[in-house]
From TrEMBL:
Lineage start: Bacteria, Bacillati, Bacillota, Bacilli, Lactobacillales
Signal peptide: none
Name of this chain's protein: CTP synthase
InterPro entries: CTP_synthase, CTP_synthase_N, P-loop_NTPase
Organism: Streptococcus pyogenes
One GO process term, biological-process aspect: pyrimidine nucleobase biosynthetic process
A cellular-component GO term for this protein: cytosol
A GO molecular function held by the record: CTP synthase activity
Pfam families named in the record: CTP_synth_N
CTP synthase N-terminal domain location: 1-135
Length: 136
């Protein structure tokens, strides 16, 4: 984007995160799909939902759904499900909050991948399904 701006390809327009950065990110993802003849492209955004550094990446991925069709996009959210030894229970609230933040950015996860110290029982899966709007 900076190279294009310096070459004048934006015709003097102010370079902005949306659309210039997000378009460049989407183009890179699409190019990876076409140049490798892949059926599936997995794009990971690290960090914590809501961190300012990840927002352009999340916005680009949100836009991909409209660009390539909802049937061609699957959002998988990996999150920690803490186990509190003192209480002897898993806490779903951090995951619920993280999904709420994603939804606020226009991304509804299709699937949750939960990292936890102990296996999550069906009641925990049902609770997350209900409050995060995903299948158990």
């Amino acid at each position: 984007v900076l190279r294009k701006e310096r070459k004048g390809e934006y015709l003097g327009a102010t370079v902005q995160v949306i659309p210039h950065i997000t378009d460049a990110l989407k183009e890179k993802i699409k190019r990876a799909a076409t140049t490798t003849d892949s059926d599936v492209i997995i794009t990971e955004v690290g960090g914590t939902v809501g961190d300012i550094e990840s927002l352009p990446f999340l916005e680009a991925l949100r836009q991909m759904k409209a660009d390539v069709g909802a049937e061609n996009v699957m959002y998988i959210h990996t999150t920690l499900l803490p186990y509190l030894k003192a209480a002897g229970e898993m806490k779903t609230k951090p995951t619920q909050h993280s999904v709420k933040e994603l939804r606020g950015l226009g991304i509804q996860p299709n699937m949750l991948v939960i990292r936890t110290e102990k296996p999550a029982g069906q009641n925990i899966k049902n609770k997350l399904a209900q409050f995060c709007d995903v299948a158990p």
